[in-house]
Amino acid sequence: MPTFKQFRLPDAGEGLTEAEILKWYVKPGDMVTVNQTIVEIETAKAAVELPSPFAGAVTELLVAEGATVDVGTPILTVDVDPEGAPGVPPAAQAQPEDLVPPLPDEGAVEPGLIGSPAPGGRTAVLVGYGPRSVVAKRRPRKNGIPAATGQAATAQPATAQPATAEPATAEPATAQVAPEPVAPEPVVPEPVVPEPVAAAEPARQGSNGHGVSVLAKPPVRKLARDLGVDLGTVTGSGDGGVITRADVEAAARSVAQPEPVTPAPAAPTWDASREQRIPIKGVRKHTAAAMVASAFTAPHVTEWLTVDMTETMRLRDRVAASREFAGVKVTPLVFAARALLLAVRRHPMVNSAWDEQAQEIVVKEYVNLGIAAATPRGLVVPNVKDAGRLTTRELADAIKELTETARAGKTTPADMSGGTITITNVGVFGVDGGTPILNPGETAILALGAVRETPWVVDGELTVRQVCQLSLSFDHRIVDGQLGSEFLADIAAVLTDPGLALAFG
Q1: What angle do the packed helices 245-254 and 218-227 form, to 10 degrees?
Q2: How far is it, in rounded angstroms, from Cα 445 to Cα 436?
Q3: Which of 86, 70, 61 has the alpha carbon at shortest distance from 7?
Q4: 119, 132, 165, 292: which one has the fewest Cβ atoms less than 10 Å from its Cβ?
Q5: Which residues are catalytic?
């Protein structure tokens, strides 16, 4: 007999409660092996690919792409014994005629899934039967005798007649075919040839509304309408009293025409048709909750300092051209990160955390350096583990790998856990600075602004230098103004004169 097993959504992070199904890599009928990637999910921290814990045939996808489900919810059913009993076709074993075999955990399976729409427009069915639109259950017994077997319950076709349809003996209704529409022949108007004006019969006659005939040709009447002239008030100067173009134009000049009224512009409208609604879920939902909690838990203080980075930018050019850094993207962020790590050694209290429950300040002797990265799914902050032990080349490689992985949406929850201090490079967007919000559980975050050519005073003379703004936000419960200022000043000193790194180290 087939053996069905359910794959329940696991906790892919640290205490996560839900995840969104991004993409299925299998479909019903596919054979899977142990550790084969079957689905990609997005948790509150990152996108994660999940492997199959079973080997067998996929029988049903229980959750559609785009749905958000709780941890522990069944999302996939696998038949781990698709061959079944020897000598019996698998299709005949998959479902007895009198009883649909229950899944291993009936309490976790929602009723009515048989025949319900599945992802991609398919209909989820059990092996060996066509689509079913009823809840799986025992057939009713009649007088204690099971109902006759041999006929599987099938879904009623879409063309079935309602209960009030005519008896089968009635003549079938003959479909009436609507006659093809006959296109009307185009009507070509006959040209109007004005008749010559004669004393006995004028060219055109009309009434002015007072019983008095008005004599005017069609072109003259059109001109009068265009100019707003009432022909009943015009005296014709032509033969027999016919009104001419000159008569109409003269009447138009003698009558003051009212100025045209310009219609008022339509009032602008705003409705739901001009709005877009984006569900708050996944990484963005987690980031929003974390930022709100951080902003209203830790008292933020932000300090600014403008730095002359000319020497650091010259050092970057030399390092990028060196053999040791061949193939490595050397950015100002790498040197700012190195300066921050050196400053942490001198001020370890900045690299700490506030434990509210234990009423303790936890000072970290290691630095897991967070790198804030903007991704299509939102802001994520993976961190370089034990960054203080890395060389500058290793630090550059680690930062590049983290940012590329984050933009590809492949950051793991482990990469975003355990951070101790963060640096964010807003300069890549052309921004000079800002007031960054602390990553939850951390005490400080440094924002690196854009490096710009700026007039600067050096040794009493005005010159052009490469200048950048630094913004440091810190938790005032742990870091007071003096400590925060000294920490920021040490970072600026190393960026102004990279040679100080020898003295700091």
Answers
A1: 10
A2: 7
A3: 61
A4: 165
A5: 476
CATH number, span 4-121: 2.40.50.100
Could you give the angle at the alpha carbon of 474 between the alpha carbons of 470 and 477, nearest 5°? 160
pLDDT in tens, 82-111: 775 443 344 434 443 343 344 444 444 444
Q: Which CATH class is domain 283-504?
A: alpha beta
DSSP string, 312-364: HHHHHHHHHHSGGGTT----HHHHHHHHHHHHHHH-GGGSEEEETTTTEEEE-
Q: Work out the end-to-end distance of the chain between its first and last CA atoms, rounded to an integer number of angstroms.
A: 69
Query: Is residue 97 a contact partner of residue 150, using CB atoms and an 8 Å limit?
Result: yes
Residues of the chain with CATH 3.30.559.10: 283-504
Q: Distance between alpha carbon 37 and the CA centroid of its chain, in Å?
A: 24
Q: Would strands 461-475 and 452-458 be described as parallel, antiparallel, or unpaired?
A: antiparallel
Amino acid letter, residue 171:
E
Residue pLDDT, tens place only, 234-287: 888 888 788 888 888 888 877 655 556 677 777 777 778 778 888 887 777 777
* Measured torsion, CA atoms of residues 26, 29, 31, 37, in degrees rounded to the nearest 10: 10
Which is nearest to 23 in space by CA: 113, 108, 120?
Answer: 120
The one-letter amino acid code at 418 reads G
Residues carrying CATH 2.40.50.100, the chain: 4-121
How would DSSP label each residue in 35-71? T-EEEEEE-SS-EEEEE-SS-EEEEEE-S-TT-EEET
For 196, residues 6+ apart whose C-beta sits below 8 A from its C-beta are 203
378-380 vs 373-375, strand pairing mode: antiparallel
Q: At which residue do the structure tokens 């940012």 appear?
A: 403
User: What interhelical angle do 310-321 and 481-496 show, nearest 10?
Assistant: 50
**CA 382, CA 373: separation in Å to the nearest integer?**
8
- With vertex at residue 379, the alpha carbon angle to CA 373 and CA 384, rounded to the nearest 5 degrees, is 45
- Owner of token pair 């004169």: 497
pLDDT tens readout for residues 189-246: 444 444 444 333 344 445 554 445 677 778 888 888 888 888 878 888 888 788 888 8
Geometric angle at alpha carbon 337, from 335 and 340, rounded to 5°: 110
Measured CA to CA, the distance from residue 16 to residue 69 in angstroms comes to: 11
- Residue 414: both structure tokens together: 């482990």
From its phi and psi, is residue 438 left (phi > 0), alpha (psi between -120 and 50) or beta? Answer: beta
Tally of CB atoms within 10 A around 148: 10
Place of tokens 């008095």: 212
